[in-house]
Amino acid sequence: MVAINTNYKNNISTIEAIEEQLKNIADAGFSHVEWGHDWLGDYFYTNIEMVQIKKMLSKHNFRVKAIHATEGRVKALSDNDKSDFGYRIKDRKDYTSFNEYTRLAGVELIKNRVDLAYILGAKQIVLHMQLPYVELKKDEDIKKKYWQQVFKSFDELKSYCKPRAVKIAVENLLCTPLQEQIDQFDTLFARYDSDFMGFCFDSGHGTLVSLDDHLIFAERYKARIIALHLQDTHSIAPELIDDDLAVLRHDEHALPFTGVVDWDELARVIAQSPYQLPVTLEIDIIADTSEQEMSTLKEAFVIAKKLNTMVKSYRKAQ
Question: Are 253 and 4 a contacting pair, CB within 8 Å?
């Protein structure tokens, strides 16, 4: 039993194309999936769409590990081909917004994904919280107001999630310095208990934020790991770490064991966490032919099974 993201090819929107990807995932041998479509933007699923998705997944006997929720649009300013994730764009749905209506719209967007998780039987949603760290450093009043809005939103979501037995797994991200993310997660986990909020470790992101210790997030927050995005990268040269676009380009979402991640050590950390197997891959597959696509999917299945076995072995030895 192993899992993979449903949007491994791209974030396509047509039902026919999604169904094709689901069939390929099933044919490759996967038993579980993370629903990854529409993880970015403000798309709202209607109730009948949720029923349709459930039927598609049931057709292939899939179990759903998680839903990749959306925080809205990318939280970064773009100007002359430059992105700066230290600032925020003005969005119409943003659960961190200072505009109360916009904040509430952002909360409703997340609740929509909680509903999808509940209908599909998933126990958690994965959520981004892109930190506008430059803004927060500049003005203590803005920082205080920002966290007030964040707490208000998560407090509301807590009362919505708990009756549905759906947790929020906040993910380590790109383009935010290591210490700022550590402060962010420490703040969240000090306020919210593990019955509501956990951690999603993205192994590729870890290599691009902490160049000296790729697993620092996994080790530090292993008691909160409830979701995984397992992928590999070749990391990035130190002189490029402050170039957001370069960082994004180096986020390869490659097959495990093809880059710099220490998979044996990561398996040990996962074994010490409350994460419930199977492991979940989050990879991109770029193929010229359907045969190449299926070959890579089958290779991914073998690799995921290997990782599953590694985690089980470490747990057995504890």
Answer: no
* Structural domains in the chain (count): 1
Structural domain for 261, as ranges: 3-317
The pair of structure tokens assigned to 58 is: 């049931």
pTM more than 0.90: yes
* Structural contact between residues 96 and 49, judged by C-beta atoms closer than 8 angstroms: no
Using CA atoms, how far residue 63 sits from 16, 119, 120, 284, in Å, is 20, 12, 8, 21
Q: Is the peptide bond before 278 cis (omega within 30 degrees of 0)?
A: yes
Is the pLDDT reported for residue 160 higher than 80?
yes
DSSP the chain: --EEETTSS-----HHHHHHHHHHHHHHT--EEEE-TT-SB-----HHHHHHHHHHHHHTT-EEEEEE---BS--SEEETTEEETTS----SS-TT-SSHHHHHHHHHHHHHHHHHHHHHT-SEEEE-----HHHHHH-HHHHHHHHHHHHHHHHHHHHHHGGGT-EEEEEP-SSS-HHHHHHHHHHHHHHS-TTTEEEEEEHHHHHHH-SS-TTHHHHHTGGGEEEEEB-B-----GGGTT-HHHHHHT---BPTTSSS--HHHHHHHHHTS-PPSSPEE------SSHHHHHHHHHHHHHHHHHHHHHHHHHHHH-
Closest by CA position to 65, among listed 159, 1, 154, 158: 1
How many whole angstroms separate alpha carbon 143 and alpha carbon 288? Answer: 47
Q: Which residues pair with 215 in a beta bridge?
A: none
Kindly report the CATH number assigned to the domain that includes residue 153. Answer: 3.20.20.150
Model confidence pLDDT, tens digit, residues 209-256: 999 999 999 999 999 999 999 999 999 999 999 999 899 999 999 999
How many whole angstroms separate alpha carbon 156 and alpha carbon 136?
23
